[in-house]
Amino acid sequence: MTDTASEAQASAKAGAGLKIERIFSTEGVHPYDEITWERRDVVQKNWKTGETVFEQTGVEFPDFWSINASTIVTTKYFRGALGTDKREQSLKQLIDRVVNTYVASGKENGYFASEADADLFGRELTWLLVNQHFAFNSPVWFNVGTESPQQVSACFILSVDDSMDSILNWYKEEGLIFKGGSGAGLNLSRIRSSKELLKSSGGTASGPVSFMRGADASAGTIKSGGATRRAAKMVVLDVDHPDIEEFVETKAREEDKIRALRDAGFDMDLGGKDISSVQYQNANNSVRVSDEFMRAVEEGKKFGLRARTTGEVIEEIDARELFRKISVAAWECADPGLQYDDTINDWHTNPETGRITGSNPCSEYMSLDNSSCNLASLNLLKFLKDDDTFDAVRFQQACEIVFTAMDISICFADFPTEAIGETTRDYRQLGIGYANLGALLMAMGLGYDSEGGRTMAAAITSLMTGAGYKRSTELAGVVGPYAGYARNAEAHQRVMRKHQAANDAVRSINPVDRNIIDAATKVWSDVVEIGKVNGFRNAQASLLAPTGTIGFMMDCDTTGIEPDFSLVKFKKLVGGGSMQIVNQVIPRALKKMGYQAEQIEAIVAYIAEHGHVVDAPGLRQEHYEVFDTAMGKRALQPMGHVRMMAATQPFLSGAISKTVNLPETATVEDIEQVYMESWKLGLKATAIYRDNCKVGQPLADGKSESAKKDQGLSTAAPAAEAEVEPEVVEKIIEKIVYAPTRKRLPKSRVSRTTSFTVGGAEGYMTSGAHEDGELGEVFLKLGKQGSTLAGVMDAFSIAVSVGLQYGVPLETYVSKFTNLKFEPAGLTDDPDVRMAQSLMDYVFRRLALDYMSFEDRSALGIYSADERQRYLETGSYEQLGNGTTAAELVQKPAPAPKAAAAPAAEPVEAEVEEEAELVEEAPKATAHTTAELLESISGMAIDSPLCFTCGTKMRPAGSCYVCEGCGSTSGCS
């Protein structure tokens, strides 16, 4: 029995306990009896194969729960074997299983003043859950009240020392956590570097990076044996470790390997049969940087790398050069992220016990080594009143109820290792958080990247954490403070005063945030004053997690702290159908901003068709920012994400799970700016992701052009490109050309002329082929003769033609120039290429269709209209008698619209109108998730993996990805 448990029982015997006030439930009426229930059939299929992966009929849910929410809860959280009486078949059974366990443990451990208070607590908790006001993290729903170990935590931090016994124990503990479906993180900086000697033999040490290989292989093996998803793990190394440069470049070098193997014909997609040969792919990597290092970067100074055994400086490096290497590696493969050590430990409530050195896989939980955290998140949109103001009073009351339940769970919880269990019981770290912030701000008419939006988010976050700590002081007075509080009392109270000071610095922007700031100010005053007397029950109170699966359980539009993903949604219907809808908070936001019913109807109709608000009829430009989203035409700028994180970070015990997404055109300098500004603005951690930076990331069909192009060679980043391109070009020459021999075209050759229109810009393309049908020349005519544009196009055509004749494969040009984005872009008059992101994008897609075999272009995700139609009908792109060669393609007569030398203006306009209708219908036929729907509408690729369970495209959620179809995540529970 721990010291804390002993104190709890002593307090119980003294008659102490919480008095529970009725807030949400109705006296004399059970929460279940206040709502209407209905029976549903849950059938889940793999969209790619058509195979039924799950089926349970007659499950019971409230009528206001969406089909998606009931499907995910049924498939993920209902316990018992399918087809047996032990299988749960109603949401009532699931909630009762969890709530009854919490109430019973609360009674046993002296949390309640009376039996009536315990029963009322159960009713209040039930009401909040069944009405989707909050949800516990997934392990609670998986395990609590079952015969399984009562694991309630999703986040774990391990530790490893500089000994072989400790390293092998690390492998073992990590494996046990992965087997249970959770993730873990740790810091490897105590392991001596490869530049230091072993005491026993005098030989050179292996270094932490070498031991990462073994852990990575173990994670990959356990993943493939126990589940299909990748293992969730975080590996951290301090910036002053002598092996830091090797650590920084590990994953970037592996991306080069993936690229080379892919070009050689190996299957290197995520989940592909050959990807397992690549190392370090099962972990997120982060560098733990200090203020000293970041200042050295600013000032251009040297920075010392220190021996692990003695602490002496054994090497000095240029700080800016290392910072540049970190940013280049992140540009190439999204790793490593940064964790800001001094900021993290300045907000640490338990420094006398030990420093914070690591984090969980998504970087939101940061605490002592060998510890865990159980999470719960509130649905913010549920607290928006009919008058479009936020109900601060009910939100605070909900936080206190939820926080009480979370603390009770530690009393009965099981843990994967004894060390983790001991630390968690002694420090009782909790992680209350929220979801639906993006939807709330939009509904209130506040831009995500605006002062009003950031102030609202800061006020809500401050109130939430303050309410949690206030309840923690009250629990400390009832069942005693956490066991480690006495030795850390002064430090803990200092951090509470820091939170209070940060809250005092928040200034109201408009009347809607004033009551929240006032409530937060009052609650932080109570925290500081009551905490001096009672102490605190919990070392940590809050963080912001991804809320992927539980976000769907609560029918949230947005996850965690994220903005809205897109303005159009993919909604499942009863009976298995689906439909495209516009985000339901948009009409509410428009009404809040003063638009009339007719105007709202027109704007919503425009959004449904275009997926964005730019040029929407009657919408004022100053209101565009309210509807900015994570993806699409009005996508938020990277620093908009950073500023929102900075606004909320001072009010969190932990950190924030969020990736700062950058466009493919982002430069290394852009990444340096994000990392530097994140440090200056006081963030605890930052992760970035540049679109299409990972070669092994499958997109919509697993073979799209973005997945297959050489993503490391973006023209938008000259500094990084200069380091990579010469090597890649050399490999291509060695592999394909061998010698620069020119294959000239015959004097008379087969050619075709294609007229085209892209986004209203007209042009002509003439292509000529060798006798074997291989493309040998291309000429483009755009603009008036003698103009700069015409001259540039002539020069470009000659360069491409000469390259083709010297043996550069057409496939290389296609992979380089497709998906290139610039104006003019948009609708084309070509039925095979409905949308083009630029003139170059169209030209090389057309050339691929005209001169490449089906097998070669399908690997790039390029199909004709007939092939796409066949896919809709049969599930296969291939047509009968398909194996067409390039030579046969050349001999085929070109379709009439393309062969005409100068098509008349009127038929072109008619084709464009017809094409617009096709594009409008496409989402209904092909999309299976919101991510795929946005791709269909915008013509832009969403760089997300496919779900292993149901085959649909996932969408970003915090630092991972979540599937709308089945609720699966890419590593975070």
Automatic annotation (TrEMBL):
Class of enzymatic activity (EC top level): oxidoreductase
UniProt protein name: Vitamin B12-dependent ribonucleotide reductase
Molecular function, one GO term: cobalt ion binding
EC number: 1.17.4.1
Stored Pfam families: Ribonuc_red_2_N, Ribonuc_red_lgC, TSCPD
Occurrences of domain Ribonucleotide reductase large subunit C-terminal (ranges): 153-689
Function as written in the Swiss-Prot or TrEMBL entry: Catalyzes the reduction of ribonucleotides to deoxyribonucleotides. May function to provide a pool of deoxyribonucleotide precursors for DNA repair during oxygen limitation and/or for immediate growth after restoration of oxygen.
Recorded catalytic activity of this chain's protein: a 2'-deoxyribonucleoside 5'-diphosphate + [thioredoxin]-disulfide + H2O = a ribonucleoside 5'-diphosphate + [thioredoxin]-dithiol
Bias type Basic and acidic residues, positions: 702-711
Gene3D superfamilies: 3.20.70.20
Source species: Nocardioides luteus
InterPro entries listed in its UniProt record: RdRp_reductase_class-2 (IPR050862), RNR_2_N (IPR013678), RNR_lg_C (IPR000788), RNR_NrdJ/NrdZ (IPR013344), TSCPD_dom (IPR024434)
Domain named Ribonucleotide reductase class II vitamin B12-dependent N-terminal: residues: 41-132
Chain spans, region Disordered: 699-720
SUPFAM superfamilies recorded: PFL-like glycyl radical enzymes
UniProt GO BP: DNA biosynthetic process
Keyword terms: Cobalamin, Cobalt, Disulfide bond, DNA synthesis, Nucleotide-binding, Oxidoreductase
